[in-house]
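The freezer alarm interrupted the setup, so I double-checked each line after restarting. Inputs confirmed:
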Amino acid sequence: MDDFLVIDHISKSFGQQRAVDDVSLTVRQGEAFSLLGPSGCGKTTLLRMIAGFERPDSGRILVAGQDITTLPPEQRPVNTVFQNYALFPHLSVWENVAFGLRMSRRPREEIRSGVDRMLDLVRLSEHARKRPAQLSGGQRQRVAIARALVNRPQVLLLDEPLAALDLKLRQHMQMELNTIHEQVGTTFIYVTHDQGEAMSLSSRIAVLNSGRLEQVDSPASLYENPRSSFVASFIGDANFFTGVAQEFQHEGYVRVLIEGLGSPLVQSNGAVSSNQPLRLMVRPEKISLTLARPSSGERVNAFRGVVEDIAYFGSHTRYRIRAGEHCILAQLQRSRFSGGEIDPARGAEVWMSFHPDEGRVVRLEDAA
Amino acid sequence: MTRSRLPALLAWGVVLFLFAPLVVLVVNSFNASRFGGAWEGFTWGWYEKLWAAEEVWQSLWLTLRIAVSASLASMVMGTLAAYVLHRFRSWLQNVHQVLITLPLVMPDILMGMSLLALFVLSGIETGLLTIWIAHVTFCLSFVTMVVLGRLQDFDFTLLDAARDLGATRAQAVRKVLLPLLLPGVLAGGLLAFTLSVDDYVITFFVSGPGTTTLPLRVASMMRTSRSLPVINALSTLLIASTFVIAAVSSRLQRRA
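Predicted 3D structure, all chains:
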């Protein structure tokens, strides 16, 4: 089912503030999906509307064909893992997990087997009698997941599931969440401000910015083909150049005049008309550095610059290169050094180059 | 390493200052001397006299009935008041807040007089009912304050979580909010109970014939020196029970 969860033209305002502005998207059954954006982008409001804690001003929300827009939270086939887990402190781990089944008045035997099975899945069976306060952060997280999943929701919402954990535990839980998702096959919707988290947890990501949907795509597509400079800069690092479309050379390619740098040839990424102002994006790792002008074909874009700063990260090295007004970030893998590239020192004159297929034309936001 | 003895000395000084009168009272309740000036030998006599003093037990029974019913009523009303004060903000709530705090700071004598004036004006005969109303009035404030403190620590996402797991609004309150508030409500109720048991000033104004509560009874017994040691014996028993209640109350508050 391609449109298992449907968000249909949803808007929500708080006073003058438009928290969510006409957002539409669909999530497939069994998919791991992320709502990604900086704080205040409306992702949490969207999540609360799916869970039923907020009522949208307009639009509809459907789960498996059922319109749930006006249902109270307790009647929705949706469960939530809250950011601070919101475990009931007066109940044991076992009773926390049993809470949902008790509310729906399931037979005693079903509750017992359901809770035991869930605690087994999150590997907390031996902690069943403990209170939440006696558990570590990662364990509490797993209780929260078990408590939600035991109700067999159609959709599981996870609000910043890793934000409260320290780095090491976060990496561990990331893998654990993927394993749990594989095992239960429920539709997972993550809400996060962390692009790394979104990319590693989900197969598709919706990027939100000030209440509006910027782009919905797979992690790789978002990284390789961002449609706006917001998406490009929010996911990974990027060099941006503002310029004007010059002329067309090939089908799908455009030459962009960038003042003080040159006129590189890049993929046009959709319709571009002559003299149209646009923005060019190149990822730091797509840029090669050489001492001499690269000669490998005329289609390589090359510019001169001076190395201003070098930062060594072990697996890679970052260079900040000055070219007139422009400041360009380049990233080299150590292994590429042998391929005729140089290991430049600070102050060295270098050539930066990138292939036309590595540059992207992105939308100019608020082009005024 | 030598440590200053000052803190220990101060602490013992404070303990002495606070508890010396109580010790004198307890000791005198076993003193055969009527006036308690000097130790004239150990006796259970005053406790036996107390046991036979029927009017004292009647007053105690009355006091307990009032205290239990007044604190139960103020537990219910105080919890509701605290919830409303915590959840909603408006100018009316500010008035509400002031009204709730007022009995805490208002002199008892003022409260007693104004309540009496009100009862006289509205033609309500003073007696059990008026005492009960007066006690609920000031107990309510204390319960509200204690519960309000608990509510400030309460994580309201827990109610969202309960709803998310299929609980209706009422079920979320019953299964999550109330169990977590209960220690605070009980602590407030115990506080209300002790305040009600030993209130003299307000009760003095609003009591009627035949409704002599224990504090009123003790005060009237004080007028004749004959019963002074009996009061000592009674006080000793009250001190003991007060300590028990205070200990339970503080344990409840700590656990919450």
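Quick read of the result. Chain B has a mean pLDDT of 88.
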